[in-house]
Amino acid sequence: MDLDELYQDLLLDHHKNPRCYGKMESPDKQAEVHNPLCGDVINIELKLDGDVVSDFSYTGSGCLISQAGASLLSEVIIGKNLAEIAELSDTYDRMLKSSVPEEELECLGDLQALSGVKQFPARYKCAKLAFMALNKASKDE
Ligand code: ZN
Prior knowledge:
The chain has helices at 9-16, 64-77, 82-97, 102-105, 124-139; strands at residues 29-35, 40-49, 52-61. The chain is of the alpha+beta class. The protein has a single domain (3-139), classed as Sufe protein. Chain: A (Alpha-Beta Complex). A three-stranded antiparallel β-sheet has the order 1-2-3. Zinc ion (ZN) binds next to α2.
């Protein structure tokens, strides 16, 4: 399998038309993470309503997987609480490393577009970067 096969239409679309890209006014939480293996940077900002993510935005640069991953993440997490997001993160993690039954992946929505990454362990961190930023931001006091 060629790496290009990872780059499905959905990923390309998110890369070309990123959702939630930009900066917000007075975020409640923010975090920046780097992936030195690939040169990717993701900076995310959150607004929280209690422990529910009510708004999310990101900026960054790097490979298609890392940037489309952040855009896809934005569509899945808004409106979810931090416990639900931690669960999604676990499921996503398993998807990136192994074959997981489809019904378990439904909660990930379009993030399933990145399931091909499991064949490319070197790109794991690219795909996980936005979740790592989210995790860091949610622990930021
Ligand atoms: Zn990358």
